[in-house]
Specification:
Distance between the termini: 38 Å
Radius of gyration: 28 Å
Number of strands: 7
Shape: elongated
Order of helices and strands: HEEHHHHEHHEHEEHE
Number of domains: 2
């Protein structure tokens, strides 16, 4: 689920819960009403199929309810953007939302705000213990054993990797990057995290070849300083402000256009956040 969809869902869960409206049930193809505008189930079904394809079939009622809530909320935002003269009636939800957000006040974070946010959230940036790892990968054990013996006799690991390794990283001397324990298969992690810096493993057999690992560096668990993650902090702060602006827009749209869901017209049990129109015994 996209960040925007998650925000919409959170806003709905927090903001909805109004009493069910008493309105006559409309035609059997109408799934909901946004103000005076009717939303037919076929529109939602087409949206589902266009978004999820064959994956739309067989979704549980809870998932369908959340998706319907998201769809109706997007329709509310389109209508709000149209009424404000920002887009035409045929605009999609993404464009309408972008145009609305572009006019919401979202000042850039100040240095004091960046520092305070980092202080409150610094643990979320914690890095686990990691190793900088290189490897030689061969198709047969004999080649791997010979490579390991060469290295043990004093040959440079990177030079041997360039010559015999079939791994794509061979051109860079077998350098594969930084890895935490959870980034590696458990069997690999158990081996490489026991090696000292510069240490070389025994030959490790797998279904796809034979590995020789070298640990270039050990990096301890740490929380990076603000200067190392400043761009991430600013990006997350900016995203939070966009989320808050989107929440305000959803609230404004809900206040302006009453929403009713006609759950008896849905082919699934509706468990969403919007009010359900009742009573059903009224006629058009």
């Amino acid at each position: 689920m996209s960040r925007r969809a998650a925000v919409l869902g959170g806003v709905l869960a927090a903001a909805l819960g109004a009493c069910a409206a008493e309105a006559p049930l409309p035609g059997p193809d109408v799934a909901a009403r946004l103000g005076e505008a009717e939303v037919r189930y076929a529109e939602f079904d087409a949206h589902l199929r266009g978004t999820l394809g064959e994956g739309a079939a067989g979704l549980a009622s809870e998932a369908l309810s959340q998706l319907l809530d998201q769809f109706l909320t997007e329709r509310l935002l389109v209508r709000l953007a149209v009424d404000r003269g920002l887009v035409g009636a045929d605009a999609d939800a993404g464009r309408a939302t972008d145009e609305l957000l572009a006019r919401e006040p979202r000042p850039a974070p100040t240095e004091a705000e960046v520092t305070a946010w980092y202080a409150a959230q610094r643990e979320s940036f914690r890095r686990p213990e990691r190793v900088e790892l290189a490897q030689i990968l061969t198709d047969d054990r004999l080649t791997a054993e010979r490579a390991r013996r060469e290295i043990a006799a004093g040959s440079d690991f990177a030079a041997v990797a360039r010559r015999v390794s079939s791994d794509p990283a061979a051109a860079s001397g077998g350098q594969t990057g930084l890895f935490a324990r959870e980034d590696l298969p458990p069997a690999f992690a158990e081996i490489v995290f026991k090696l000292d810096e510069g240490g070389v493993s025994e030959v490790v057999a797998t279904d796809y070849g034979f590995h020789v690992f070298q640990v270039r560096r050990h990096l301890p668990a740490e929380v990076p300083a603000l200067e190392e993650v400043r761009d991430q902090v600013i990006a997350r702060l900016t995203a939070e402000r966009a989320d808050a602006a989107l929440a305000r827009l959803v609230s404004q749209a809900r206040s302006r256009y009453a929403v009713q869901v006609f759950d008896r017209n849905l082919p699934f049990a509706y468990h969403g956040a919007f009010p359900v129109a009742r009573p059903y015994d009224q006629k058009n």
